[in-house]
Amino acid sequence: MIYKSLLSCSNNTRELGGFRTADGGITKNNVYWRSDVPENSTDRDVDLLLSAHITTVIDMRTEAEIQRTPHTLADIPEFEYHHFPITEGSGVPESLEAVPLSYISIATAENMHKVMKAIAEAEKGVLFHCTAGKDRTGVVSAIILMTCGVDRESVVRDYVISREYNHKRLEAFLAAHPEVDRNVVLANEKSMNGFIDLFTERFGTTERYFEHIGLSAEHADMIKNKLMKGI
After folding, report:
1. pTM of the full predicted structure?
2. Domain assignment present for 7
């Protein structure tokens, strides 16, 4: 199977549409797109985003990451660009066992309430991303899908598939950093399953999670309603 990013300027841009939920519904397309950093976006990329009504862009990278790879959509007036840096998850965890704990740190990061608030309140569709579109973006995607009642197996599968989209980038990283355990940086099933276990143990429901980060259950409902009914 060939895994092709929705955008030519990225490796790992894909939909959160098309997932079946516990109540028998299916999440809608062109509401929430997850991605790695868009580099050197083309006119075609911009047209594709706008035609899909994706007009809000949320960048979770740190200042240092932005300095290394400036955002090519940030200065395009048709997009509402937000930079909410999430420092948690920007480095490599020490071990595979540490990854779920890292993901809980991402979920409860200082700026995460800004990320979730913007996703919930955006007038149209949203593209949210970090650098590789795997860890910080993976955590946000998992929480959104769980909010909509998508089953665990599908949430994990959506996370794991990043290793296919990011294959070339990850192999290049591992070649440059032979000391790093590949299981830590690849999207491993154990990492997301461990995160879901910790998330459920700590918060119980996504509604309680939203309240924990300073928002409300209404924001969870806003995200669910958008992804289930469309924009």
Report:
1. 0.94
2. no
